[in-house]
TrEMBL record:
Record InterPro entries: PyrdxlP-dep_Trfase (IPR015424)
Name the record gives this protein: DegT/DnrJ/EryC1/StrS aminotransferase
Domain of life: Bacteria
Length: 337
C-alpha cells in the first residue's frame, strides 16, 4: 500500500539521471594518481604548461632531445628558453644551478633515470620539472613538479597529471573527448590498421594547444584499470627483452626500471625499423626533427637516427616478445652474413 503521507516536496533531488539506455560497464576503482597535490589535465604538455605557470619562472632550460610539440608550451607563456645537451647516460651537460626565476626540465627518458640521479638533479634546481611522460609509474619527487601522460600508457583519448606537494588548486575546463573516441572502439572490432587514421585525427587535435582539464571519459576509464597488473606485465616484458637483446643494445640499462613505456634499443642498423614494420612490429621513429637542430656528432643525433622504441606494454605476452626478438636477431644475422 502506498504511503499516503509521502509528499513530493520531501524528495531530495540530485543531479542524476535515472533510467534510459544502458551504459558501458567499467569497474570503478581509483585513478593511479589522485589527491590534493594532483592536477588532472588533458595532455603531458598541459601539465608542463601549468607547472611553469605555477613556478613563475621567466626562463626554461630544456633538452635538445625532445618532441618539437613541447615548444607549444613556451609561446603562450612568453618564456625565454635555452636548450642543453645530454651525455650517453642521458645526464644533462649543464654545469650550474638555476635561479629562482628559472625552471629546469629533465626528461626521464624511457624511465631510465635512477632515484639517485633524479635527487641529485632536483637539488641543483629550485624549479625542477620532472618529465615522467615516458615513465608513468615513476614516483613523484618531493619538492619537484612531476609530470605524467596517461595517453602514452593506456587506451584513453586524453589525460595527464601535474603533481607537486602543496600546489594551489587550478580550476580547469574539462576536455570533451567522446567525439574522438572512435579509434578506441574501432580497434576492438576491426584492428589497429583500420583505426589508424582515426587515431591520427585524435592526435592531430592536440596540435592546437589548449591546456585544459582531463575529460570525464578518460578519468572514468583510468578509474577502471588494474594498475598492478599493468606494471607487472610491462616489467616482465621489459626484462625479458633485455635478457635477450642486451648484447646487441648499445644503451646501458643495468639499473632497475619501474614499468617503462618501451624497451629502448639502440642498434646501428638504419633499415631495421622498416624491416620490423614489414613484420607488423610497429616501431615509431621518435623525434626526427631533432636531427635538424643538433650537431651530427652529438648523442642526440645518434639517438634520433638509430633508437628503436620496442613495444612492451600490457597487451603483450612473452610469446609476442619472442616474436620481436626473433626478427631482430634474424635481421642482425643477415647483416653479418
Amino acid at each position: 500500500m502506498a504511503d499516503l503521507n509521502y509528499k513530493a516536496e520531501d524528495i531530495v533531488y540530485k543531479v542524476k539521471e535515472i533510467g534510459g539506455y544502458m551504459e558501458l560497464e567499467l569497474p570503478r576503482k581509483e585513478s593511479y594518481y589522485y589527491g590534493p597535490d594532483v592536477v588532472e589535465v588533458n595532455t603531458g604538455r598541459a601539465a608542463i604548461y601549468h607547472a611553469i605557470k605555477a613556478s613563475k619562472a621567466k626562463k626554461l632550460y630544456l633538452p635538445h632531445y625532445l618532441c618539437t610539440s613541447m615548444l607549444q608550451v613556451i609561446e603562450p607563456l612568453n618564456l625565454e628558453f635555452e636548450f642543453y645537451n645530454i651525455d650517453e647516460n642521458f645526464m644533462p651537460i649543464f654545469d650550474r644551478q638555476t635561479t629562482e626565476d628559472e625552471a629546469f626540465l629533465y626528461i626521464n627518458y624511457f624511465g631510465t633515470a635512477s632515484n639517485n640521479t633524479i635527487k641529485k638533479l632536483k637539488n641543483c634546481h629550485k624549479n625542477f620539472l620532472m618529465d615522467n611522460t615516458q615513465a608513468f609509474f615513476a614516483k613523484p619527487i618531493k619538492g619537484a613538479y612531476s609530470l605524467y601522460s596517461a595517453r602514452k600508457f593506456f587506451g584513453v583519448n586524453d589525460g595527464g597529471y601535474l603533481i607537486k606537494d602543496g600546489i594551489q588548486k587550478i580550476d580547469l575546463e574539462s576536455d570533451i573527448s567522446y567525439p574522438h573516441a572512435i579509434h578506441l572502439l574501432k580497434r576492438i572490432e576491426e584492428g589497429a590498421n583500420a583505426a589508424y587514421l582515426d587515431n591520427m585525427k585524435n592526435e592531430d587535435r592536440f596540435d592546437d594547444f589548449n591546456p585544459i582539464g582531463m575529460s570525464k571519459l578518460s578519468k572514468r576509464i583510468l578509474e577502471s584499470i588494474d594498475y598492478e597488473e599493468v606494471k607487472l606485465k610491462r616489467q616482465r616484458n621489459f626484462y625479458y627483452l633485455h635478457s635477450k637483446l642486451k648484447d646487441l643494445n648499445k644503451l646501458n640499462l643495468e639499473h632497475s626500471f619501474e614499468a617503462p613505456m618501451v624497451y629502448p634499443m639502440l642498434i646501428e642498423h638504419k633499415d631495421l625499423r622498416a624491416y620490423l614494420v614489414s613484420k607488423k612490429i610497429y616501431v615509431p621513429h621518435w623525434w626526427k626533427d631533432v636531427l635538424s637542430r643538433v650537431e651530427s656528432n652529438s648523442f642526440e643525433h645518434y639517438l634520433s637516427t638509430y633508437l628503436l622504441a620496442l613495444p612492451i606494454d600490457q597487451r603483450y605476452d612473452l610469446e609476442d616478445m619472442d616474436y620481436i626478438v626473433g626478427h631482430i636477431k634474424a635481421f642482425d644475422n643477415s647483416i653479418l652474413l
